[in-house]
Amino acid sequence: MRLVEAKEGLFVFHLAKRERVLLTQVMKMFPVSNGPIGPLSKSGDEAKLAEHELALAEALTEQRTEHKRLMDAFLGEQGRFAEEKNGFRLRLTTVQVDWLLRVLNEVRVGLWVQLGRPEELAPLVMSGQLDSVVAMEICAFFQSRLLAATEKGESN
Q1: With CB atoms counted within 10 Å of each terminal CB, which end of the chain scores lower, N or C?
Q2: Would strands 81-84 and 87-93 be described as parallel, antiparallel, or unpaired?
């Protein structure tokens, strides 16, 4: 994934054919988890915390539903990935870049939580959890490219 152009809130990327497949596959994994990543706090009024955690879970469910709807529309949009020589051209607005970063992060962190929040990933590969680890790394790759593009776009 290579930034081709960044101007006035629009980012244009070139994706190799395999990059498009990888991006769409990790996006289709969304949502990985249903609830919050962890408790709001380890101390405090338990009744209040339970109330706040319930409100957070409801808000996250609404947000994930909206992100899923947007993702389905994004992936299904005619011409979203315009085919060109040696790959595809992807145009994203600043808002779409931000949204895509959130979706990728949600997939990456969701997989990490499913794997037991490991400090090291290498032992997981050796124990047969390769698919989840690879998906996390694919998310990280696209996140780094999108973040680098936004930094470059801000300096223009």
Answers
A1: C
A2: antiparallel
Residues in the chain: 156
Q: pLDDT of 86-122, one tens digit each? A: 999 999 999 999 999 999 998 999 999 888 889 988 8
Which of these, 129, 27, 136, lies nearest to 81 by C-alpha position?
27
| Rounded distance between C-alpha atoms, residue 92 and residue 75, angstroms | 12
| Tally of structural domains, the chain | 1
Beta strands in the chain (DSSP E): 2-7, 10-15, 81-84, 87-93
| Residue pLDDT, tens place only, 16-69 | 999 999 999 999 998 887 655 555 556 667 777 777 777 777 887 788 788 788
The b-or-e profile of 135-145 (16+ CB within 10 A means b, else e) is bbebbebbbeb
